[in-house]
Amino acid sequence: MKKFLTLLLAAAVALPLNAQRIKTGSIEGVQPQGSYMPTYKSDGAKKKPLNIILMIGDGTGLAQIASGYFANNEELTYANLKYIGLVTTKSASNFTTDSAASGTAFASGQKTYNYAVGVDLDHNPIPNIPEIIAPHGIISGVVTTDDLDGATPASFFAHQNDRGMTNEIWAEVPGCPLSLFAAGSKEVFEARPDSTRKAIEEQFTIVNSLDDPRCAEASRLGVLPTAVETGFKLDGRGDFLPENTAYAARFLKKHSKKGKGFFLMVEGARIDKACHLNKFDSNVLEVLDFDKAIAEAIRFADEDGRTLVIISADHETGGLDIWDGDPSKGKVEGVYIRSGHTAIPVPLFAYGPHAQDFIGVQGNEEVARKILKLLGCK
Ligand SMILES: [Zn+2]
Question: Which of 131, 133, 98, 84 is nearest to 256 (CA)?
Fold first, then answer.
């Protein structure tokens, strides 16, 4: 009887709290953007890839992808890919990860604690993919709609005990092995200490747009557009992500040593941010934009023939579910159960040589280990 009463009391307390958290949203009249249909010529090939593009949709679970799929009249480049797996995302400290711990796992092959950027549980630096492959002559790049110091991009070049150490993360840019970064923002860069800016400008050609003629001559390039140009789609961001994904792949191919290849990380950062806000329309527009970037990566992989593209997520955000819609009208409705991350495994899609290595269920750190093995840098 006592147990029954406790349960009843728990339910009475829990229900209103949970009810407050449930937030619905909808979008209608989305203009279909189509999708890129791959040639599949290199898909699943047994010869090892020369180049690897890892695409992280921050906060992008199956429901986020599905929201874009239904809004886009049941079509996405994602949905044209055949090699599909799942990724578990638990961190070394928490059942539910944050972007820093998951970013570090994807970047290094090692689990760490939430908030850690490129350091282990004892705060020792963990080498990331760009650092591990650089001595093998393989170059790297990072493209993101987040600020460059965001937890996910930072995991691919920095080592700090806490993701909030903005100045310290930027101060690591000059010494990192990246050949290219494209990220937010001009304003954030200008707010850094003079010494950091000077050191970065000594190592990288810094531009605010790909239209800058200096891009063509740069051997190491930093693209830092305005905050609006890397902000939410709803607030006026253009095609920054697809354009810079296409540009970065070509830039890195042009600058890579013969037979050595490159590694590129592309992040769709604002899917997570839209889901934290439980803004469903923004969530859908960010997924559609990320899918355009995926199309550019797959198109490059088809042209190149030796590029593997891996698309996954660091975690799901918002506990999103999809519950109604009308794809022919670009309409879909969703519901979030929370404003934070969830621990549900996230989908992974792979395309190109050795895409088959990524099917099944794997930890986020295993994805990095497979990448390093394929690049011959285990
Ligand atoms: Zn988040």
Answer: 133
Question: What number of residues does the chain have?
Answer: 378
Distance 263 CA to ligand 1 centre (A): 24
The phi and psi torsions of 169 (rounded to 5 degrees) equal -65, -45
Tell me the CA–centroid distance for residue 279 and ligand 1, in Å.
13
Residue 306 has pLDDT above 60, yes or no: yes
Whether 354 maps to a domain, the answer reads: yes
59 CA to centre of ligand 1 in angstroms: 6
Query: Is there a domain that residue 230 lies in?
Result: yes
Range of the domain at 106: 49-374
Confirm whether 1 is domain-assigned. no
Distance 154 CA to ligand 1 centre (A): 14
Q: What are phi and psi of 9, to 5 degrees?
A: -65, -45
Distance 3 CA to ligand 1 centre (A): 37
Output 55 or 1, whichever has higher pLDDT.
Answer: 55
Whether the pLDDT of residue 217 is over 60: the answer is yes
Give how many domains the chain has, as a whole number: 1
Q: Which residue type occupies 348?
A: L
Are 53 and 306 a contacting pair, CB within 8 Å?
Answer: no
Q: Against a cut of 0.85, is the pTM above it? A: yes
CATH code of the domain in which 128 resides: 3.40.720.10
Asked if residue 341 belongs to a domain, the reply is yes
- Residue 46 CA to ligand 1 centre (angstroms): 36
Structure tokens at 11: 């339910």
Burial 41-61 (b: 16+ CB within 10 A, else e): ebbbbeeebbbbbbbbbbbbb
